């Protein structure tokens, strides 16, 4: 499908004017304002089983969450959408983020991909659409064959068109190195609203977080519970954070669980946290992280315990040096071995 921005925008704006934004879950003709800022606490959905994620999303949205982090590549957006619909929470009271997959970086495919996501999620617009990785794959190729002809800026321009067309309120990035963010900031007509990247007590990247605050870009911390995601098992020789004596001690001091302490730290440092769970008790437990706070001395203690270990890095498999100027960058064969621990 060719992305005809003007036609698309005209159609969208006409629909908006008649119905108001996203009346999917509320048939009133009033036009409630969507959330102004990204909520600081969201529910992650990567690896959430299709059979469980609708219940998890519905439960979260009816128990204090108002932010869902989704992605086309997670393969469960239809089920996430069912949870949103079943919650009966008004669309404008929810923040929905999704992501553009690497095989959809060509401009015509950007439009198609966001259209599919919007339709699968059962919403009329997204609050935030992220470029999932700064890496383009050849569409319909081997899956991870690199498309060196489609630049980040070309894809960004198409994402800017998606904002103009009313398909998403904001656009942003994910998994970018600092140099890539700087290059994009020089050219972007619409600035990235947020950057979603891996950061937690074992990969704090405080300078990188501060760089975003200085540039007015929100940081969404993914894998906020560090190496708790089971796919990270054995990825690096680091004991599970739930067994870490520093965090067990912090949790005891705060009279909370380790998960709450870790997430509370993520919030206190100004990042948005999006822990994933399909268990009601964890979903509820995690939200109570909002009541945890640390003294300045405790924040320094935690800062000193940074391990600078990255758990999510598909760069090697793709043959791409990711995170070049950040902690624990991708090492390709032939690169000098550097000890990370
Ligand atoms: N932009 C990107 O490239 C990118 C990459 C990675 C992640 N993300 C986003 O970030 C979200 C969160 O990251 P993540 O899923 O990697 O890791 P995470 O949220 O840090 O950890 C998830 C794991 O922790 C478990 N868990 C959650 N709360 C718990 C608690 N209170 N006690 C014990 N275990 C608990 C979950 O179990 P159960 O599920 O079994 O309940 C799950 O196995 C993802 O779901 C996704 O939306 C984005």
UniProtKB/TrEMBL annotation:
| Keywords for this protein | Oxidoreductase, Signal
Chain ranges of the NADP-dependent oxidoreductase domain: 42-306
Q: Please provide, alphabetically and separated by semicolons, the GO molecular function terms listed in this UniProt record.
A: oxidoreductase activity, acting on the CH-OH group of donors, NAD or NADP as acceptor
- The keyword Signal belongs to this UniProt entry's keyword annotation: yes
Q: Which PROSITE patterns match?
A: ALDOKETO_REDUCTASE_2
- Quote the record's binding site residues for substrate: 132
Q: Which InterPro entries would you find in this protein's record?
A: AKR, Aldo/ket_reductase_CS, NAD(P)_OxRdtase_dom_sf, NADP_OxRdtase_dom
| UniProt key word Signal | yes
Q: Which residues form the signal peptide?
A: 1-19
Annotated site (Lowers pKa of active site Tyr), which positions?
A: 99
Active-site residues, Swiss-Prot/TrEMBL: 74
The record, for PANTHER family, names: ALDO/KETO REDUCTASE
- Annotated protein name in UniProt: Aldo/keto reductase
Q: Which organism is this entry from?
A: Microdochium trichocladiopsis
């Amino acid at each position: 499908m060719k992305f005809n921005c003007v036609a698309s925008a005209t159609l969208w704006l006409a629909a908006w004017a008649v119905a108001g934004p996203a009346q999917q879950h509320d048939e009133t003709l009033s036009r409630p304002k969507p959330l102004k800022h990204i909520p600081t606490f969201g529910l992650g959905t990567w690896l959430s089983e299709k059979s469980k994620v609708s219940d998890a999303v519905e439960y979260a949205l009816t128990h204090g969450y108002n932010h869902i982090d989704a992605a086309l590549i997670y393969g469960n957006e239809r089920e996430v959408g069912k949870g949103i619909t079943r919650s009966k929470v008004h669309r404008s009271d929810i923040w929905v983020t999704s992501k553009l997959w690497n095989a959809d970086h060509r401009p015509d495919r950007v439009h198609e991909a966001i259209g599919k996501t919007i339709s699968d999620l059962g919403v009329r617009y997204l609050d935030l659409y992220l470029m999932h990785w700064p890496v383009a794959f050849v569409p319909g190729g081997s899956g991870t064959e690199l498309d060196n002809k489609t630049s980040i800026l070309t894809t960004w321009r198409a994402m800017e068109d998606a904002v103009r067309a009313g398909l998403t309120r904001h656009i942003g990035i994910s998994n970018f190195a600092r140099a890539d963010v700087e290059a994009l900031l020089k050219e972007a007509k619409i600035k990235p609203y947020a950057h979603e990247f891996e950061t937690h007590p074992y990969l704090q990247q405080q300078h990188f977080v501060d760089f975003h605050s200085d540039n007015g870009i929100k940081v969404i911390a993914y894998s906020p519970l560090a190496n708790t995601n089971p796919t990270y098992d054995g990825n690096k020789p680091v004991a599970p954070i739930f067994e870490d004596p520093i965090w067990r001690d912090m949790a005891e001091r705060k009279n909370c669980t380790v998960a709450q302490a870790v997430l509370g730290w993520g919030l206190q440092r100004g990042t948005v946290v999006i822990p994933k769970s399909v268990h009601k008790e964890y979903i509820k437990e995690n939200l109570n992280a909002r009541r945890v706070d640390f003294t300045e001395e405790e924040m320094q203690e935690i800062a000193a315990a940074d391990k600078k270990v990255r758990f999510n890095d598909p760069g090697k498999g793709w043959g791409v040096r990711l995170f070049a100027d950040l902690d624990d960058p991708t090492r390709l064969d032939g690169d000098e071995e550097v000890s990370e621990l």
